């Protein structure tokens, strides 16, 4: 009966917060640029999700290791340098092993640097927590991001191309709904997913004055 | 000829290749700051200035990197240039134009992590622009972003005042619906200008 006590463990809470309660995209609305720009194919979404998860975990761990050495005044620049180092690693890895995905993602791989989630986790969590928790936190947030990306891209790819992961799923008579491969489709799908998840988890925002 | 090309690029980046509504860049600050038209306008102006200045500085640096055959480091170099430029602009405005600083000084640090600044620098690399084209492209992109954030803020202000939004869509989620409709309208500009 050990597993019942699981939910009182700190790492379980961190995991749950990252994936569900404070989901980076749906609840905190961070990292939208890449979430919408690359999600017209499921394949791209998976590659981007894994890349971002790696960058969050690696940069949070590094920031946390150096947290006693980084002077508070220059911490932003320090984050930037750490994050861009890992982003360059992801970019070179994709170019070396998955050139087709790398060309399709284009400049958006480089834009992982300015993905607010990475910076946000470094500033909000990694700078004041020990390394083992930052790894869990980075993984949880990265997975929360990846799940939403896959959800958005499965809707968009099926509607826009009639395919899922490159396999035909819609009947031959299906007319491709090209709009969903473009920007407006992304916005509408994300709005609907945010609406659904917020209603399910009852995490409402107040209406602004 | 050259003048026509510059005009083409600026109109193109403003309408048919709008950074915010077609390429979906700079969303974090677009959604966070579009709660009032006044703030949106200040943020837009700040972004336009920083985009233009950083792209103009990054272009010669990229040529140097190309000469020394280290283009794979361009990401790291660009982001450091951007962070440094933003810091310098912030200090200069604080010293010489204190009134201006009060109205949009708080947005300046946020700009470092705005994707549009880095994206402009990455795009001119991909497209092999010369110096003048880079300057026109970055200025137009900034203006296009300003247009988008001001329009979004205007609609949001009105929507919040007059309509009863479903609970789950309140706050930032309704901004996506508005952005979707704006983006739909901007697709209508396809073909105007070329970049």
What this model shows, in words?
The complex is a heterodimer of chains A (209) and B (195). Helix content of chain A is 63%, strand content 2%. With 209 residues, chain A is mostly helical. Chain A has one domain. In chain A, helix 1 packs parallel to helix 7 (131-161), helix 3 runs antiparallel to helix 7 and helix 4 packs across helix 6. Chain B has one domain. Chain B has helices at 2-14, 27-33, 37-67, 74-96, 98-104, 108-111, 115-127, 131-162, 172-187. In chain B, helix 3 packs across helix 4 (74-96), helix 4 (74-96) crosses helix 5 and helix 8 packs across helix 9. The longest helix of chain B is centred in the C-terminal third of the chain and has 32 residues, at 131-162. Chains A and B meet through helix 2, helix 4 and helix 8 of A and helix 2, helix 4, helix 7 and helix 9 of B.
Note the run of SSEs of chain B as H and E.
HHHHHHHHH
Number of helices of chain A: 8
Helix proportion of chain B: over 70%
Quickly give the structural class of chain A.
Answer: mainly alpha
Count of DSSP strands of chain A: 2
Regions with little confidence, pLDDT below 50 for 5+ residues of chain B: none
Give the overall form of chain B: globular
Q: How much of the residues of chain A is beta strand, in percent?
A: under 5%
Shape descriptor of chain A: globular
How many E strands of chain B?
0
Mean pLDDT of chain B: 86
Can you list the strand order of the major beta sheet of chain A? 1-2
Percent in strands of chain B: under 5%
Reported for the largest beta sheet of chain A, the result is: 2 strands, antiparallel
Q: Element order, helices and strands of chain A?
A: HHHHHHHEEH
What is the share of helical residues of chain A?
Answer: 55-70%
Q: What is the typical, i.e. mean, pLDDT of chain A?
A: 84
Class from helix and strand fractions of chain B? mainly alpha
Distance between the termini of chain A: 50 Å
């Amino acid at each position: 009966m050990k597993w019942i006590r699981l939910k009182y463990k700190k790492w379980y809470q961190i995991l749950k917060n990252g994936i569900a309660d404070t989901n980076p995209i749906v609840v905190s609305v961070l990292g939208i640029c890449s979430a919408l720009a690359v999600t017209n194919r499921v394949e791209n979404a998976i590659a981007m999700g894994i890349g971002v998860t790696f960058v969050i975990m690696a940069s949070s761990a590094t920031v946390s290791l150096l947290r006693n050495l980084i002077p508070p005044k220059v911490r932003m620049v320090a984050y930037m340098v750490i994050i861009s180092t890992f982003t360059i690693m992801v970019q070179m890895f994709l170019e070396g092993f998955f050139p087709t995905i790398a060309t399709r993602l284009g400049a958006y791989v480089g834009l992982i640097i300015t993905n607010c989630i990475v910076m946000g986790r470094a500033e909000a969590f990694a700078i004041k927590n020990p390394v083992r928790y930052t790894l869990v936190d980075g993984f949880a947030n990265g997975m929360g991001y990846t799940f939403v990306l896959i959800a958005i891209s499965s809707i968009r790819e099926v509607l826009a191309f009639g395919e899922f992961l490159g396999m035909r799923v819609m009947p031959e008579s299906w007319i491709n709904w090209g709009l969903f491969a473009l920007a407006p489709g992304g916005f509408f799908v994300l709005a609907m997913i945010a609406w659904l998840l917020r209603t399910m988890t009852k995490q409402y925002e107040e209406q602004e004055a | 000829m050259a003048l026509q090309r510059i005009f083409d690029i600026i109109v193109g980046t403003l309408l048919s290749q709008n950074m915010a509504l077609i390429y979906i860049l700079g969303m974090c600050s677009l959604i966070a700051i579009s709660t009032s038209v006044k703030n949106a306008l200040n943020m837009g102006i700040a972004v336009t200035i920083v985009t233009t200045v950083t792209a103009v500085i990054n272009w010669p640096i990229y040529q140097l990197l190309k000469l020394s055959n280290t283009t794979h480091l361009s990401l790291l170099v660009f982001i450091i240039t951007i962070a440094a430029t933003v810091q310098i602009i912030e200090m200069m405005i604080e010293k010489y134009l204190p009134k201006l600083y009060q109205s949009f000084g708080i947005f300046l640090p946020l700009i470092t992590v705005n994707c549009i600044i880095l994206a402009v620098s990455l795009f001119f690399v991909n497209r092999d622009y010369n110096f003048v084209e880079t300057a026109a492209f970055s200025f137009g992109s900034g203006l296009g972003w300003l247009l988008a954030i001001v329009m979004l803020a205007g609609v949001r202000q009105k929507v919040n005042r007059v309509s009863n939004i479903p609970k789950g869509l309140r706050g930032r989620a309704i901004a996506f619906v508005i952005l979707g409709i704006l983006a739909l309208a901007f697709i209508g500009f396809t073909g105007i200008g070329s970049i």
